[in-house]
Amino acid sequence: MPDSFTAADFQTVTRVVKNRHTFKVIGDVDSPVKIAHPLAQRYRATVMESVATADAAPFHYDRACNNVAQPWRVNILWHESCQKIAMNFYQWFEDVKPGNKIPAMLSACGACVLVSWLPQFGDVDDQAIAKSKQIQIDREHLAATSAYVQNLLLLLTAANMGTYWSSGGQFGDSAMMDRLSMDHGQELLAAVFIEFPQTNGGHVKRLPGKLADKRAAGEAWMRVIEL
Ligand SMILES: Cc1cc2nc3c(=O)[nH]c(=O)nc-3n(C[C@H](O)[C@H](O)[C@H](O)COP(=O)(O)O)c2cc1C
Questions:
Q1: Is 0.85 surpassed by the pTM of this model?
Q2: Ligand 1: does its nearest atom lie under 6 Å from the Cβ of 165?
């Protein structure tokens, strides 16, 4: 057992976990947030470090895809690319409702990190493995990727960045994946919109998660089993 952590470390981690909140940051496509070069460089380095560190998430099965054991794949869009997508969004997706929030969020974020998982048996029925086992393995690839996403959210929170775990809407469409040259076989789990500190200067709307106040107290969902 590692024993190198202090009570203060525990308190810090607790504080980070409790202070991770969804911030949906809504900007203006016609007047996107601008991020000064030195700030952008510094925050991008922090995002890259967090993306790398989040890889410490647990995973149960060797996904063994292109010699990579982890079941997650990560694609990073910096804010210039986000803004290009925002500007082209309605040409690329003609069937999208006018109020779609993705372009507005892409106009405000410093980065958008797309986290996907790699289903192993979706279209493949491996006769050597029972169907129930295939389902379990895929479920656990997905669960591991969720652990990756939460790691990432916590690290970014600790770096004073705003985060929003979105299902990703059109980012999950194969047409968008083609435009972003994402490998087929990836299934989007999260589009993490990241707000860089000190960049939005009040020109954005910041909305909380819709279930943020809906949590039931611990007694409602946990119990201790005493035998
Ligand atoms: C798998 C997953 C997908 C989510 N997708 C969306 C989404 O597409 N739209 C949205 O408004 N919130 C989405 N959320 C964020 C939740 O709304 C948010 O976590 C919830 O309201 C609780 O608020 P909190 O994150 O501040 O605790 C998602 C969260 C998870 C875990």
A1: yes
A2: yes
